[in-house]
Amino acid sequence: MVPRVGHHHDHHAEVERAEWQSYLTDYHNDRPGITEQLLADAVDRHRIRPYPWLIEPLRASSGPILDLACGSAPTRPLLAGRSWLGVDVSAGELAVAAAAGRGPLRARADRLPLGDHTVAAVCAAMCLPVLTPLDAVLAELTRVLAPGGILAALVPSETVWGRGVFDWWRIMRALRVRTLPWPNPRARDELPEVLRACGFVIDRSERRVFRREITGPDDAALVIDGLYLPETGSEQIMAAEHALASWARRGRQLALPLRRVVAHRPTTVR
Question: The whole model's pTM is what?
Fold first, then answer.
């Protein structure tokens, strides 16, 4: 009986994974460039934007850089002159990137078309909490990274307390959800522990709060559209857009807390 129960569990997990992957593909094909649009105008208290913050540790690396699940490839212009390869599965996202002259390649994150130890660094912007199966993705990163190679990952962090918490509470209440349905919730603030379990050495784990001005309905719609909500109905989504739009005005800023984790692959394996 135990093997049959395990088989049923594995089958159920596979079905859920397939459903999520189908949703994710459709989501990005329908909204190409959505993540770049959402973060483009966000700044921290030093007026630094999320993507330059993410790629800063990669500037010291030499050799090819892999941009994992690159979407519209917003990091490409920031790494001009470097040997860069972006991969993504979304035809819509890749089309936006290609139109901007960024030229990524269509490939799955868990089946990278690269040889062993062929990249010096990996950039993972806002993707690790949603890529499945995560263990296979991380195994691929370990395989393609050269010994001593760097991984720089940007992930959403827990909602900021204080001034920004009520703003997100208003959104979540309208959506009628307690948490956003990430398939890999541990790959957020617990990402250092997840990476350590895969053999990475953690160099830095830092949290910053970025803020994006919400001046009217268009900004409100972009924020809500930028959330992964596979089981949320259109009525709740419209209610959340209305709730955020009613709060919006010039000078109003929505907190977007993010975490940057910088890690490296050991030069020797014990």
Answer: 0.91
The full DSSP string for 38-49 is HHHT-B-TTS--
Q: How many domains does the chain have?
A: 1
Question: Which helix (DSSP H) or strand (DSSP E) does residue 157 occupy?
Answer: none
| Nearest-10 crossing angle of helices 234-247, 217-225 | 140
Domain assignment of residue 67, yes or no: yes
Residue 217 near residue 259 (C-beta atoms within 8 A): no
Range of the domain at 55: 10-160+182-211+255-265
How many Cβ atoms sit within 10 Å of the Cβ of residue 40? Answer: 13
Which helix (H) or strand (E) segment holds residue 76: the answer is none
Q: Are 51 and 43 in contact (CB under 8 A)?
A: no
Structure confidence by residue, pLDDT tens digits, 165-217: 778 888 999 999 988 889 999 999 999 999 999 999 999 999 999 999 999 99
